[in-house]
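Loading example: each entry is read as two labelled lines plus one structure line.
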Amino acid sequence: MRRTQTVDDTDRGQAHTVEAFIAALLLVSGLLFAMQATAVTPLSASTSNQHIENQQRALTGDLLSTAAEDGTLQEAVLYWNASRGAFQDSPDQGYYTDSGSQNTFLSRLNDTLAERRIAYNVRLRVHNTTGTPSRRTVSMVGMGRPSDNAVTASRMITLPDSAMLTGSDSRSLSTVASKPNESFYAPDADPANELLYNRVEVRVTTWRM
Amino acid sequence: MNRGQTVIDFGIGAGVFIIAVGIVFAFVPTMFEPFSTAAGNSPVVADRTADHLTGSLLATDPATPSVLSTACTAAFFGSNESLGDNADCGFNTTESTGDLLGVDRNVNVTVRHLSDSPTTGPPVTRTVDGTDYTLTRGDDNTASEVTVANRVVMIEGDQYRFVVKVW
């Protein structure tokens, strides 16, 4: 009896410091898990705020729809130098690499977005008549790689065969297509049809600089 | 007695545990702060109010949102009832801004030039039928915590920034 009592006292299987560290670790990992589950915490970057992304998307969508309404979007899409095969006044890459005021649509993007430190890429998706993929993407403005919190708005416009280029050579799209040494970025999607030339999806991706 | 534990050992262990509990409990309320501030749902209210105004209430045609009717815009900002009735705008402009928009908090709606600051720039003035209308409506003394929603609108071919502040 006495001997058992002695053994109990000497070998208490407990070390408070280690136990306390394990318990603290459990509490902290529980907290970290809960933080991953919530979308926004005080530690989240402010540019990832959903409201800011929504506002940027609405702003870009409005710019596209108002530009489509007054025709400046079509003007920008046709601001092309056919003999050079690049956008009018663009640098060697063939597209604009910075914000600028080359035409009305681009100057509005510049006023509304670039002035407020929002960067943007403008890409045009057109129907491809030859080979795969069936859609081709052409850059109009490329300001770099979008951040993880970038948002995109898009708008579809239809180009007729009779649409005139708005750059320095003022020719219709069907005339450009018939000349061997001149090119437009989109092919005639329906050569049999006199009216339809191609359909262009204008995609504007914006992100905060 | 040979207990495998000392008082110091126990003291350190209990101390570490109590500090950890304290830190965790102190941190939990700040995790919910973004959801529980007075702002609360005002991002949604501001966004929907801007959508409602530019997409249907002041729009010329719901099929072309962001293109605003000149008469309805002037009637809305200038509280000109007869102008609004003649253009068949479908709202009672003499009501208070909150009642008109169905918002039970302070609202300020202002139209600014694209190149001006979205929150502090001067409002646009437009002339309709020989009368000047300053395109701003609602209380101007904004509180420190304001939620802002931005849109781009077109009035008679000119583009402006349409700003809704809610607090």
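The interface with chain B takes residues 9-21, 23-24, 27-28, 30-31, 34-35, 38, 40-42, 50-51, 54-55, 58-59, 62-63, 65-66, 69-70, 108, 111-112, 115-116 of chain A (CB under 8 Å).
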